[in-house]
């Protein structure tokens, strides 16, 4: 039994000014991989492909790696990039068949210049090549915007159930196992997607607490409590893609029972509709968050007091309160510069206010290859005065002048073996610099746009984050597995930027109308 593996994974922020060119996909180790390179990069990880490979070993089928491409969340995929990537993949799919099945590893929120629903187009072409009888499975990020076209073109569509994403491998395994059973004629998967006219704000998408926690629990229960149900997925959606399918959705897969699949998906969506207000409540401003951080912070946690996150793919929960739960840094989630949502990684909005408030013990990263070069030329131990950050566009603040000592210059590559969002093991910040400022701050300057989703990013620079007062993590949910074990408190901040929690700052032209919270639709339909 031969099953093909391929995919283009991209989360497209259509408001970003940085296009996803072919060259952007080429940046970074493992961003375009072919053949066995795929297994070398992702086989021993908690990513979806790791789950596919484990299922292949357990079930005894041959998983044939064709090609996989990904890049960090940025702007729209250019026509040239999509054409070059997809044509190479589809040529492999055509030439190396016949196939018993296909497994796709996409993100689910991809937009190209030619195809607003890129994932729908990718599955359409896959189906065209392999024909109507070959089972096709796909696994998506929970921040997918899934269309009915994608559901029509696949037999099994599985979505991660945790944000931060800790169950990627588990869900990939489930998808591959269902495709294997379909090929063996043991099941006949029948899918239905319900797409209610609503979204959930990015700052409310953490599945470890309400309002999302109970919605995930209800979705899992609908799967576990009925033998006819093969799987259920709750899709949070990605609000920074101006496309028709943007928003939440629910997918139910049954064993040849279309009516049951439709009923369960609609029942789950109707329950969520009643929580639409809670799913879109605001969070504090920058100054409010920093004032709160000053009230909360007491000191570092004693050695060994960290509560580490689960590694079994279960949803991340709030840490259990202990006598030391008030100790440790306060972590501010920079929603407006959510690198995992397609932002610039160089926002200075929080740093500016922290300077004004004279906050010390402050730590953050900034994407700034120009400043990295200046520091490298000066050398370790040199004192420099430079303007950092705010250089990509006009949405993320002005450059901030800082004076400090170049403490460390590093190549930027590191491995993370702790549980982390997405399950990736290998990371690359590009050439980077640690700069300790004269006013008590530590700034890491990077030459590649990178997430703050691992603590190893800091440890590898000789930085112990546990000893800082305030840490800025550029994200909303993805940094939680790394920082929650050491944080006294995590505060999501309503900062400005291309991933701002204030969706009124974006001009949507292509989304469905009406769509809550922009309008009040008549839903459920009477």
Structural write-up:
This protein is α/β, with parallel strands linked by helices. It folds into 2 domains: 2-191 and 229-234, Rossmann fold, CATH 3.40.50; 286-501, no CATH class. 27% of the residues lie in helices and 21% in strands. The protein contains 14 helices and 19 strands. The chain has helices at 22-26, 37-42, 48-59, 79-95, 118-130, 148-153, 168-183, 212-224, 258-273, 286-296, 349-356, 369-378, 456-459, 480-483; strands at residues 2-9, 32-34, 62-70, 101-105, 136-140, 156-159, 189-194, 229-235, 249-255, 330-334, 362-367, 383-388, 400-410, 413-415, 426-428, 432-437, 441-446, 470-473, 489-493. It has an 8-stranded mixed β-sheet. α5 links the parallel β4 (101-105) and β5 (136-140). The radius of gyration is 23 Å and the shape is globular. Residues 305-325 have low confidence and may be disordered.
Kindly summarize this structure in a few lines.
Helices cover 27% and strands 21% of the residues.
């Amino acid at each position: 039994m031969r099953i093909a593996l391929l995919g283009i994974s991209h989360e497209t922020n259509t408001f970003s000014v940085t296009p996803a060119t072919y060259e952007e996909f080429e940046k970074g180790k493992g961003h375009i991989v072919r053949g066995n390179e795929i297994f070398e990069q992702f086989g021993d990880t908690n990513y979806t492909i790791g789950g596919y490979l484990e299922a292949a070993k357990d079930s005894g089928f041959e998983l044939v790696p064709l090609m996989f491409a990904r890049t960090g969340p940025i702007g729209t995929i250019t026509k040239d990039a999509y054409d070059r990537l997809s044509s190479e993949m589809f040529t492999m799919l055509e030439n190396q068949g016949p196939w018993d099945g296909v497994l796709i590893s996409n993100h689910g929120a991809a937009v190209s210049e030619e195809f607003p629903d890129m994932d729908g187009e990718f599955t359409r072409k896959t189906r065209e090549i392999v024909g109507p009888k070959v089972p096709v499975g796909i696994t998506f990020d929970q921040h997918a915007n899934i269309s009915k076209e994608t559901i029509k073109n696949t037999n099994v569509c599985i979505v991660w159930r945790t944000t931060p994403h800790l169950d990627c491998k588990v869900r990939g395994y489930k998808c591959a196992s269902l495709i294997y059973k379909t090929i063996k004629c043991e099941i006949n998967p029948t899918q239905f997607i319900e797409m209610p006219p609503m979204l959930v704000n990015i700052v409310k998408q953490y599945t470890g607490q309400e309002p999302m926690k109970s919605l995930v629990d209800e979705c899992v229960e609908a799967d576990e409590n009925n033998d006819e149900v093969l799987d259920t997925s709750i899709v949070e959606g990605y609000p920074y893609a101006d496309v028709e399918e943007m928003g939440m959705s629910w997918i139910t897969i049954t064993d040849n029972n279309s009516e049951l699949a439709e009923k369960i998906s609609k029942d789950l969506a109707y329950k969520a509709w009643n929580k639409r207000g809670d799913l879109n409540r605001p969070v504090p401003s920058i100054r409010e968050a920093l004032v709160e951080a000053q009230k909360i912070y007491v000191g570092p946690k004693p050695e060994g007091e960290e509560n580490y996150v689960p590694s079994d793919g279960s949803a991340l929960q709030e840490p259990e309160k202990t006598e030391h739960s008030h100790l440790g840094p306060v972590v501010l989630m920079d929603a407006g510069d959510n690198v995992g949502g397609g932002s610039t990684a160089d926002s200075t909005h929080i740093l500016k206010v922290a300077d004004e408030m004279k906050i010390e013990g402050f730590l953050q990263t900034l994407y700034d290859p120009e400043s990295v070069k200046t520091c490298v030329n000066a050398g370790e131990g040199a004192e420099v005065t430079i303007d950092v950050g705010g250089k990509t566009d006009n949405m993320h603040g002005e450059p901030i002048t800082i004076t400090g000592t170049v403490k460390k210059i590093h190549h930027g590559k590191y491995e993370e073996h702790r549980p982390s969002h997405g399950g990736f093991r290998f990371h690359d910040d590009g050439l980077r610099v640690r700069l300790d400022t004269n006013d008590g701050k530590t700034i890491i300057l990077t030459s590649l746009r990178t997430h703050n989703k691992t603590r190893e990013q800091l440890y590898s620079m000789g930085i112990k984050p546990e000893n800082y007062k305030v840490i800025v993590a550029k994200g909303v949910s993805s940094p939680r597995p790394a920082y929650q074990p050491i944080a006294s408190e995590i505060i999501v901040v309503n900062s400005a930027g291309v991933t701002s929690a204030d969706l009124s700052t974006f001009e949507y032209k292509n989304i469905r109308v009406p769509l809550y919270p922009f309008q009040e639709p008549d839903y459920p339909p009477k």
